[in-house]
User: What shape does this take?
Amino acid sequence: MKRTLGDLERRLFAFAQMRKLRSLCTGDLVGPLNITGKQERELFSRLARSGMIAKVRRGLYLVPDRLPLGGKWSPDEALTLNTLLADRQGRYQICGPNAFNRYGFDDQIPARVYAYNSRISGERTVGAVALTLIKVSFRRLGDTERVRTADGQIMFYSSRIRTLVDAVYDWARFNSLPKAFGWASSDLAAGRVTAEELVRVTLRYGDTGTVRRMGALLDREGVSSALLLRLERALGPSSSFIAWNPAGPKRGKLDRRWGIVWNDRD
Assistant: This one.
């Protein structure tokens, strides 16, 4: 662990702190520190290896707002996501297990941050922050909540209602069915969400399978026929059936209105 700073390291941190910079790019230090490009690259590399700054990508680094105690530092989730997606001129929203935990659907604290975004696909690690980045089209981004962190960063989470819909839509990725049906039923009963909101968000962000399962759920919950008709109209004619619980065997009573096999009922 690097505990003592050389002259260039001290000058880098002084420069960033004086200008209140949280990120530095290749070329930012050549003039202000009067060093060559090679010296700058070596300086960034030394500090990143020692854990005093965090590499976002080649040529882009996050720096602490003050020197870290003990020499080690890592950015938080908000700074990491905001910097990474701003660099790519993209948008994001935290989703899946992180949103399940935020809204109290699941008490498990995820080891990774899951985020729908418009630019990047795959897994990344920046400092101690592990990311699973899910690239989606711009039309699938939206219905979010803004969360301000203690240091003033703004994070974007999928809203509660959007999280319920995504738990049905992206069940295979998040392993969220059939649990999500119980979450939605509980939220409806408690008045935390409304059937109208579920219909609206399902039609905007769901696919055919989401519409079928959400329609069957709301039908079972006894919502108004007018709301069910909005979902039904979004479904084209089909003779195929999907399982209510995709993890179970596809055997059970057929629901021809929604194209569902009730495979978790007696």
Q: What stands out?
A: The longest strand covers residues 129-135. The chain has a mean pLDDT of 95.
